[in-house]
Specification:
Elements: H1 2-28, E1 31-35, H2 53-64, E2 69-74, H3 94-101, H4 103-110, E3 113-114, E4 125-128, H5 142-153, E5 158-161, E6 172-173, E7 176-177, E8 183-184, H6 189-194, H7 205-211, E9 215-216, E10 226-229, E11 232-235, H8 241-253
Helix pairs in contact: 2-3, 2-8
């Protein structure tokens, strides 16, 4: 009987230790909010737009594979529109091919949270994938603007890539544009001209960032480039999306 009692005590002790360890691990896990566009019209062209698949897939897997928990939100909730050009086989990458087969992530995309229902207090950082869509909705969305401000003022990283720095257009902190005096990048005027949309988009991102006092820089068209200035991380184009995620991950890991 003594042996049985001892075994029971040991088993209970191990179970308690495992439960404590699991709770600690869960508490230590970083959580990031991804914000995608709900806008699907490419100006007056009659064509569709949305988010750019590579700019979602590459950062998602870069973070998720390292144990980061990710939620996805959009202004309208539900399935966000995908830029059809980003689904062209010529735009495919290993990450987008993986996404195509990932039923769990595809289900999360189909059922994104409504932006007004999320709270920055539940997350360690926010990441905005691009695509042309954000230039129309996220640049003007008051909920998104307030959310970015809340993350930033609570000393949490805010990350953007390609066109999504457009979501910073109307974000202010203490009465000044968040990007004022900050080193940033984003989809360049030359790249917008190369895709033939300078007369279609509501504003040119490079010009808008500079107009708000940002110190904008860029490299050659379609080359990977990411800039980090304190909590603000920006990437120039689709090829830069993984770089942005790497910088974001480094910041998250530094805050253990």
């Amino acid at each position: 009987m003594k042996k049985i009692a001892l075994f029971t005590i040991v088993a209970l002790t191990v179970s308690c230790l495992n439960a404590t360890a699991q709770k600690k691990n869960k508490k230590d896990m970083k959580k990031v909010l991804f914000v995608l566009t709900s806008h699907d019209k490419l100006g007056d062209t009659g064509e569709k737009t949305g988010y750019w698949t590579e700019e979602f897939a590459a950062p998602y897997y870069e973070l998720a594979d390292k144990g980061v928990v990710i939620d996805i939100a959009t202004p309208l909730g539900g399935q966000p529109p995908i830029d059809p050009k980003s689904e062209d086989p010529t735009a495919a990458t290993e990450d987008t091919k993986r996404l195509d087969q990932d039923t769990a992530v595809l289900a999360k995309l189909k059922n994104t949270y409504k932006l007004s229902d999320v709270n920055q207090a539940d997350y360690d950082a926010v990441f905005y994938p691009g695509g042309h869509g954000p230039l129309w909705d996220l640049a003007e969305d008051k909920t998104s603007i307030a959310l970015i401000e809340s993350f930033y003022t609570n000393k949490k990283p805010v990350a953007f890539v390609c066109h999504s720095p457009g979501a910073l257009k109307n974000v202010k902190v203490n009465g000044e544009y968040l990007v004022k005096g900050k080193k940033v990048t984003g989809f360049s005027n030359a790249e917008e001209e190369a895709v033939g949309l300078t007369k279609v988009v509501p504003f040119l991102l490079e010009d808008a960032l500079q107009a708000n006092g940002a110190s904008y820089s860029k490299v050659g068209d379609w080359q990977p480039y990411a800039v980090e200035d304190g909590l603000l991380i920006t990437g120039q184009n689709p090829a830069s999306s993984k770089l942005v995620a790497e910088k974001l991950l480094a910041q998250l890991n530094s805050k253990k």
